[in-house]
Specification:
Two copies of one chain form a homodimer. With about 300 residues, chain A is an alpha/beta fold. In chain A, strand 5, helix 9 (about 175-185) and strand 6 (about 185-190) form a beta-alpha-beta unit. Chain A is globular. Chain A folds into two domains: about 45-255, P-loop containing nucleotide triphosphate hydrolases (Rossmann fold); about 280-310, no CATH class. The longest helix of chain A has 27 residues, at about 250-280. Residues about 85-95 of chain A have low confidence and may be disordered. Helix content of chain A is about 55%, strand content about 15%. Chain A has helices spanning about 1-10, 15-25, 30-40, 60-70, 90-100, 100-105, 120-135, 150-155, 175-185, 200-210, 235-250, 250-280, 280-295, 300-310, and strands spanning about 45-50, 75-80, 110-115, 140-145, 160-165, 185-190, 220-225. In chain A, helix 1 packs across helix 2 (about 15-25).
Chain lengths: ~300, ~300
């Protein structure tokens, strides 16, 4: 049964892909065996991470990029990671509606992923979902992260090419985003480039990058787009391709792959260790009791953890 | 020596507070003992979490709110959590410059916190820094999160009152933010309220909240501000106070405190378990070797973790 699921994944069957992703989301016991087999078949897809501030138009950009790839006959997988709404489901519903046009196309697979419970694991599950799509023969896999926090940046970093989306004149906090960009952006997009302030944002980015040299010496290109009018999408696709080609040959990309591998191992290790520790009804009950004691200040969190570690 | 540091924290000495925060950031062995003593003295400060999209003007709002409290003679601690720029330090420098005026004031303590390394723990360390400021006698402790991802939301949730900052007309992704807001916002701010679209944003928020009833039945007030002109700050402070009063008496706030306690325990447990597992040079070397094997696809991440768990 398990093997047949894997075989069905390898033929690209959407139901099998969806079921496999649910398994890694749930962290089910079959997931480990499944992923071992899946992992061996990965490495063929181009994995594109898309991140940026809320309001930057990432969703439209992903839609248009996917449509561009489809027009060239490529199969496209999309993982929309939404860590910010664990209970509401609002954004996920929005994604589904938004992508309805695309999702009628059998060459496109779309999945939204959100946090489940408080044991973490979303970042790990998203990266595994990407691997499943890769193994299922999707040519392009786009990972769109909705938030812009630490987890989201980690997820975007695991892509082959990470695209950071900005808009002109976003205000002071853009400085903050920019600081993060230097680290993760392989391609920079100024979306909504029909707005005022494009030139200023472009100059600022150029100035920023002139100050720093990346370890791999890649100079991230700046692409201007108006996603809702499908402007600049071809240029974006070309910049993504160029970045991938560069990295294939750069000596520093071994370090990058190793850093990604280390991150994956640590994410998984963390989850496993906590799950191991908290397995069993008595430990769950103990956690509840200790939480109540810490809440009422009868106990501090450190001694609660020591109690659990005993 | 350790006790004298704790005593100096309790008298509110800035150097002692700064040193203690460094210890919890580093996860040093003394941190546990320190935090056990600090924890017992917490619970007096009003802890205000401020979160929202980049570009919403959170920094200005924090500055003005802090100045408002100072004018009333209250001591203010500020923790600016910046998980998005682990290496650059750009945002941190920006914060420091920004807050220079405030930081000359001895009644204000400001600290920026960023990710260190890949073992996590920023969320845990930020919450502990808040506890240190609380124990040091600061009347108001403001936690500003720069990112808007899962970690940032977790941090904001641990505050007594969580303020979510929006701006008018932020585009489609506001829907996403809104979904998260229902869960965490005790007070909603529409900043830059001199811009077009304020009324629409306000109506949208009202419509959103009319659909949902929180477990504690609190109806989050919407406050309009123009932070850079100091407009609406008094109203914001009043809304924060009202939310705190409500929660003090609401039966559901016990559940809230317990959920925060559970989160703190799990964060700490996760960090401890990984640190325990990876302690020792041979394990560190093994992690490096396994990372290289996963990077070159000789091995999958799951079997790497099984190897480490042996």
């Amino acid at each position: 049964m398990k093997d047949s699921l894997v075989e069905r994944i390898f033929t690209g069957e959407p139901n099998a892909v969806a079921r496999a992703i649910s398994k890694v989301e749930d962290g089910s016991s079959e997931a480990a065996d499944l992923m071992k087999q899946v992992f061996a078949r990965t490495g063929r897809a181009l994995i594109i991470g898309i991140t940026g501030a809320p309001g930057a138009g990432k969703s439209s950009l992903v839609d248009k990029l996917a449509a561009f790839y489809r027009a060239k006959g490529e199969r496209v997988g999309i993982i929309a990671v939404d860590p910010s709404s664990p209970f509401s489901g609002g954004a996920i519903l929005g994604d589904r509606i938004r992508m309805q046009a695309l999702s009628l196309d059998k060459g496109v697979f779309i999945r939204s992923m959100a946090t489940r419970g408080n044991l973490g694991g979303l970042a790990r599950a998203s990266v595994e979902a990407v691997a499943i799509l890769d193994a299922a023969g999707f040519d392009r896999v786009i990972v769109e992260t909705v938030g812009v926090g630490q987890d989201e940046i980690e997820i975007a970093k695991t892509a082959d090419v990470c695209v950071v989306v900005l808009v002109p004149g976003m205000g002071d906090d853009v400085q903050t985003l920019k600081a993060g960009i230097m680290e993760i952006g392989d391609v920079l997009v100024i979306n909504k480039a029909d707005r005022d302030g494009v030139l200023r944002t472009e100059k600022e980015l150029e100035a920023l990058f002139s100050l720093s040299v990346r370890a791999d010496e890649w100079q991230p290109p700046i692409v201007k787009t108006v996603a809702i009018e499908s402007k600049g999408i071809e240029e974006l696709a070309a910049a993504i391709e160029k970045s991938r080609e560069f990295q294939r040959n750069a000596p520093a990309s071994h370090d990058r792959r190793k850093a990604i591998a280390r991150w994956r191992i640590l994410e998984l290790l963390r989850e496993r260790l906590v799950a191991q520790k908290l397995s069993g009804d008595s430990t769950a009950a103990k956690l509840e009791q200790l939480s109540a004691e810490v809440a009422s200040k009868e106990r501090d969190p450190y001694s609660a953890v020591e109690e659990l570690l005993k």
